[in-house]
Amino acid sequence: MNRPDREAAVRRMMERTPPQVPPGLYADVLRHGARMLRRRTLARRLMWLLLLAVSVAFLVWALTVHPWAEPPSETTPPLTGW
Amino acid sequence: MRQRQASANARRAREFEAFVAGAAGRLLHAATLLTAEAPGDNPRARRLLTLALAHTYACWDRLRGEDPYDRARQYLATRFAREAWHHGLGRTRPHPANPLARLTPQQRLILVLRLYEGVAEEQVAALLGLPAERVRAICDRATATLLHPPRGPAATAAAEAKAATS
Q1: Do B57 and A30 make contact, defined as CB atoms within 8 angstroms?
Q2: In chain B, which residues have their Cβ closer than 8 Å to the Cβ of A25?
Q3: CB distance A19–B45 less than 8 Å?
Q4: Residues of chain B with pLDDT under 70
Q5: Cα(A6)–Cα(A11) distance, integer angstroms
Q6: Do A21 and B25 touch (CB under 8 A)?
Q7: pLDDT digits (tens, 9 = 90+) for A32-63
Q8: Hey, which end of chain A has fewer CB within 10 Å, N or C?
Q9: Å between B62 CA and nearest CA of chain A
Q10: Model ipTM?
Q11: What is the DSSP string of B30-83?
């Protein structure tokens, strides 16, 4: 028996007894799928919210601290006695 | 605006329902072959099918011309592979009414994808992360096991006992 014959025999064996599709399948699928979508939407919203909060916090911090301004020098010796 | 969205939702629901009506039977048969359960009593296969179809529903709007059947089948196969990997081989008990009951989960997966679903060897290999030659070898061995079964349950029991003692 060559390869195509063997494969055809296995195919026939597998196709012999098809199971019945349960009647409540579509409702189950919709329930699961809708829950999955809701969770994804929620996760996406939370992520955007977090991003927004982080950028606002950074902006406020930058405006109050002014990290780009050069700090006054602290290494020059004090000029005394002239 | 809201009306247009409602009509888009209705169309989407109709399309998805038609897809499920067309694909569920074949996918459930494939899932039952994978889990090696009896055709009349297949809770694991039904669960796999529900999850795969729900996943397809969740990404229905982002398919962009891709075949939803392909997507569902791919999810089914990878989910089954992951569960077989995590739960080990001993937890599930194949039912003798299923023609693939004698095979291991990996052999069943490759046989179903290759011969029942007709997926190309290279695609199966890419999906499972195996070399194509290995897929071919596993498929050949599974075919041989199915067509030339070992003689009776006594012979397999004796072989297993021998393998356990040695």
Answers
A1: yes
A2: 20, 24, 46, 49-50, 53
A3: yes
A4: 88-93, 150-166
A5: 9
A6: yes
A7: 999 999 999 999 999 999 999 999 999 999 99
A8: C
A9: 12
A10: 0.74
A11: HHHHHHT-BTTB-HHHHHHHHHHHHHHHHTGGG-TT--HHHHHHHHHHHHHHHH
Choose the closest CB to B24 out of A10, A25, A34: A25
pLDDT at residue number B154: 47
Domains of chain B: 2-165 (1.20.140.160)
Residue B41 CA to residue B21 CA, distance in Å, equals: 21
| Partner residue facing B146 (CB), from A10, A21, A28 | A10
CA distance A2 to A35: 49
| Six-digit token string for B3 | 């009306």
Phi/psi zone of residue A71: left (φ > 0), alpha (ψ -120 to 50 degrees), beta? beta
Q: Residues near A26 by Cβ (< 8 Å), separated by ≥ 6?
A: B17, B20, B21, B24
Kindly list the residues from chain B whose CB atom is less than 8 angstroms away from the CB atom of residue A9: 147
